[in-house]
Write a structure and sequence with these properties.
By secondary structure, the chain is of the alpha/beta class. The chain is built from 13 helices and 12 strands. The strands form 2 sheets. A 7-stranded mixed beta sheet has the order 9-8-7-6-10-11-12, with helices on both faces. Strands 1-2-4-3-5 form a 5-stranded mixed beta sheet. It is globular, with a radius of gyration of 20 Å.
Length: 413
């Protein structure tokens, strides 16, 4: 698999070259501001001790505190976390929220751990990164294999260390302790608005347009639910156990119930069973990669049959694959635009925590829709003006905003 940090830097280099960015800004924005590696010793349920490795990367804070998720996964690496923190910088800038990019993770397998073990690991990790996080420094959020409960443990641990209640240290918390209405669905809803905007821009009807989704977790499920209600036909989905496909369409509500009950989309009866990654290669109007990075590579990009790819995951397409898809005439709506709904509502949650004033669900989704629409229009306008792809335009727009903030602030000393 291609190194995600190399992919992120190549994407940056390409956009910086097209922008004619000053050399000192290129050098500064190309590297993370701070990276912390910590040991996370945990007493396991059987009395043994295990030491996990944790990371937190802060790529850039020129526009505001670092912002980004924490993931628990056996394949977490330093390069992955640093790459994701850079993508978060651009994601925040594309939707013009006043955050920089951060990301964290622990290399572990939470599926083999008890709730108590995960809680102890989370609290110890929070203690280890305590000095560099906070509402005005770096604000974690849920990511792969982390959720509102994990955020609650982080918030509680940080508050205990601080000697006061600090809800704004994380976003994606339960509503009862300062979470925001609409946060759980935010990334999927952002994908939904992006796809609607794309077909509006193309002046195409959405009725009957077919969609396949790689990854049927939180993001995939919310996007599928909203898209199905608007007339799109979801014909195939996958999860870590396999894939299902039915050209006549899937019943998303029924599929969600099965996924909740058995944890496997392949237990859905009215569909053909496929190997997990085969869902990427089925014919559809839109493919939504909603799993991990580097799902589409130079080795499989030529098999893609979808007309449009909307990146709900972070970095699901490698550099070489991007070129192959472009040559095939496949439009890619980039991750830093399409999946920015989550960080946008995280911003709303942070604002509400600071003000101790909370919005209704309707207020949240109206504000999210307005921001996603504005961001899409800005990216499309730049793509047409500069005659570049949507990915290049999104990166150029984001880098311009971060570079201007960095230029204004200058270098210290």
């Amino acid at each position: 698999m291609e190194n995600p940090w190399e992919i992120a830097q190549k994407q940056f280099d390409n956009a910086a070259e097209k922008l004619g960015l000053q050399e000192w800004l290129r050098l500064k924005l190309r590297e993370p501001r701070r990276v912390l590696i910590v040991s996370v010793p945990v007493r396991m349920d059987d009395g043994s001790l295990q030491v996990f490795t944790g990371y937190r990367s802060q790529h850039n804070t020129a526009r505001g505190p670092a912002k980004g998720g924490i993931r628990y996964h056996p394949d977490v690496t330093l390069d992955e976390v640093v790459a994701l923190s850079m993508w978060m910088t651009w994601k925040c800038a594309v939707v013009n929220v006043p955050f920089g990019g951060g990301k964290g993770g622990i290399r572990c397998n939470p599926k083999t751990m008890s709730v108590g073990e995960i809680e102890r690991m989370t609290r110890r990790y929070t203690a280890e990164i305590f000095d560099i996080i906070g509402p005005e420094k770096d604000i974690p959020a849920p990511d792969v294999n982390t959720d509102a409960q994990v955020m609650a443990w982080i918030m509680d641990t940080y508050s205990v260390f601080s000697g006061r209640n600090v809800p704004g240290v994380v976003t994606g918390k339960p509503l009862d302790i300062g979470g925001s209405a609409g946060r759980d669905e935010a990334t999927g809803r952002g994908v939904y608005y992006t796809i609607l905007n794309y077909f509006k821009y193309k002046k195409e009807s959405i009725e009957g347009k077919t969609i396949t989704i790689q990854g049927f977790g939180n993001v995939g499920q919310h996007a599928a639910t909203l898209l199905e209600k608007d007339g799109f036909k979801i014909i195939g989905v996958s999860d870590s156990t396999g894939a299902i496909y039915n050209p006549a369409g899937l019943n998303i509500n029924e599929l969600k119930e099965i996924k909740t009950k058995t944890k496997k989309v392949t237990d859905y009866k009215d569909a053909e069973k496929l190997p997990r990654d085969e869902i990427l290669f089925e014919k559809a109007d839109i493919l939504i990669p909603s799993a991990l990075e580097a799902a589409i590579t130079k080795d499989n990009a030529d098999k893609i049959k979808a007309r449009v790819i909307c990146e709900a995951a972070n970095g699901p397409i490698t550099i070489d694959a991007d070129s192959i898809l472009r040559e095939k005439g496949i439009t890619v709506i980039p991750d830093i635009l399409a999946s920015a709904g989550g960080v946008t509502v995280s911003y709303f949650e942070w604002l509400q925590n600071i003000q101790s004033f909370y919005w209704t669900h309707q207020q949240v989704i109206e504000k999210l829709e307005a921001i996603m629409n504005t961001a899409f229009d800005s990216v499309v306008h730049l793509a047409e003006e500069k005659k570049v792809t949507l990915r290049e335009a999104a990166l150029m727009l984001a880098i311009l905003r971060v570079a201007e903030s960095s230029r204004c602030r200058g270098l210290y000393p």
